[in-house]
Amino acid sequence: MSVLKAEQLSKAYNDTFALRNLNLSVEKGEIFCLLGQNGAGKTTTINLILGFLAPTSGRALINGIEVRQNDVATKKHVAYIPEVVQLYGNLSGVENLDFFSRIAGYRYPTEALHEFLDKAGLQREASARRLSTYSKGMRQKVGIAIALAKKADLILMDEPTSGLDPKATDEFTTICKGLIGEGKAIFMATHDIFNAVNMATRIGIMKQGELVHTITNSGITANELQTLYLETI
Ligand SMILES: Nc1ncnc2c1ncn2[C@@H]1O[C@H](COP(=O)(O)OP(=O)(O)OP(=O)(O)O)[C@@H](O)[C@H]1O
Fold first, then answer.
1. How far does residue 55's CA lie from ligand 1's centre (Å)?
2. pLDDT at 180
3. Domain membership of residue 107 as a residue range
4. Across residues 194-214, what is the average pLDDT?
5. Could you tell me if 103 and 120 lie in one domain?
6. Which of the residues 9, 50, 166, 215 has the least number of beta carbons within 10 Å of its own beta carbon?
7. Containing H/E element for 73?
8. Do 32 and 125 sit in the same domain of this protein?
9. Cβ-based neighbour number of residue 194 at 10 Å
């Protein structure tokens, strides 16, 4: 069964389609990177998958469960990492992780919390510091640790590498590859062609609400993808 499935998923505002007839499956062990210009429909897609928006027609399923009809059940399988991960600034990394794990219904001993943060790439000495001192990349790592702690099968990300420096981006790529190695599925909206080539198993290009290309990433170069992207949009 696919971790994520979209069937004829559409969203219209008045007569304008922000997303039209999206058909897509994402499996365990996949990183699907969705490219597209500003306004192409990437965030709308993520919001429909999360159940934040009601589709005009079609449906999104997570682990075979329809999102809109089973909001609570599907949320258990999903973690969302927005462009800027919102956490409590006056709590430490490990305290934030503990707090959000409990909200998701999990209580972990401190060492287990540290192991999630280790796996997400956060340095041990940083995990006791207040979140307000964290960089964007460090916040993102706490977001990934929360996804791990809540045992999400699907991790949705919106523009995860925007504003990250090259080293942090490289680290992020390694962490994502580790996650899919453990059977997670990742779906991300991005403008980062280079990074999509580096990490994706498949790449989609969206134009005016339609997924016009889906490419299996088996050796496409960043230059080739950029050319295809520019010809498409
Ligand atoms: N609440 C809304 N009411 C009307 N139109 C909307 C609404 N939300 C989004 N849209 C429109 O839907 C289209 C898709 O927007 P969306 O935010 O999904 O694009 P995007 O690909 O995520 O863009 P970006 O890269 O800038 O984040 C755009 O034309 C946008 O103006």
1. 14
2. 96
3. 85-152
4. 97
5. yes
6. 166
7. helix 71-75
8. no
9. 15
Which CATH number goes with the domain that contains 57? 3.40.50.300
45: CA distance to ligand 1 center in Å? 10
pLDDT in tens, 138-184: 999 999 999 999 999 999 999 999 989 999 999 999 999 999 999 99
Q: How far apart are CA 76 and CA 9, in angstroms?
A: 21
Q: Which of 10, 37, 38 to mutate to test the pocket of ligand 1 (most atoms within 8 A of CB)?
A: 38
> In the prediction, which pLDDT does 84 show?
86
User: According to the model, what pLDDT value does residue 163 have?
Assistant: 87
54 Cβ closer than 6 Å to some ligand 1 atom: no
Are 157 and 233 in the same domain? yes
From the CB of 18, is ligand 1 less than 6 Å away?
A: yes
Q: How many domains are there within the chain?
A: 2
Which residue minimizes the CA distance to atom 18 of ligand 1?
A: 41
Answer with the one of 96, 124, 152 that is the final residue of a domain.
152
Whether the per-residue pLDDT at 83 is higher than 90: the answer is: no
Mutate to test the pocket of ligand 1, among 10, 15, 37, 43 (most ligand atoms within 8 A of CB): 43
Q: Give all strands (DSSP E) within the chain, no chain letters.
A: 4-13, 16-26, 31-36, 57-62, 65-66, 78-81, 154-158, 185-189, 202-207, 210-216
Reported as type and span, the H/E element at residue 178 is helix 166-181
Residue ending a domain, among 136, 152, 168, is 152
